[in-house]
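Hi support team,

I submitted a single chain yesterday and got back a structure, but I'm not sure I'm reading the token output correctly. Could someone confirm the output below corresponds to the sequence I sent? I've pasted both exactly as they appear in my results page.

Thanks,
R.
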Amino acid sequence: MPPTTAALIRDQELGELVGHDDIDLSGIAAPQSVARQKVRAALTSRASTQQIEDAVLVADELVGNALRHGDGAVAMTLDIYEKGAAVGVLDRRNDTAAIPSASTVRLFGNSESVDLEAVPESGLGLFLVDQFATAWAVEAREGGKVVMAVFALIGGAL
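Hi R., thanks for writing in. Yes, this is the structure output for that exact sequence:
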């Protein structure tokens, strides 16, 4: 069973919560664009350029997955901690069993080369989340589920 969001954050030792934003994505024409903008703005001056781009990519993938597989993205939460960040995307489907565990998503293990024939036609979004987030989990919520990605931002801005 995946860890709860609270356990995921506690396990990463991100420090105290220093900022929080709830973003309503329902009815927005370009929710992925809004997610990218919000994450980029929140992490500017708090993380390196590469860390920001990793978090932006993951937020984009989480919203995209909610749009494709979760009957639409409803909302995004963005929590900023002293030493990290957490992005959660709430969708309308409550079937958490449809999402593979992080260990299942790590398709290529520690292999340095990728056999392109082994790459699935779908499911790459969670593969990217698994590769770029420090940790991630899924939880059932009222009216759907939330997929949360956590980023340890030790080292901060460059």
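A quick pointer for reading it: Confidence is low (pLDDT under 50) at residues 103-112. Let us know if anything else looks off.

Best,
Support desk
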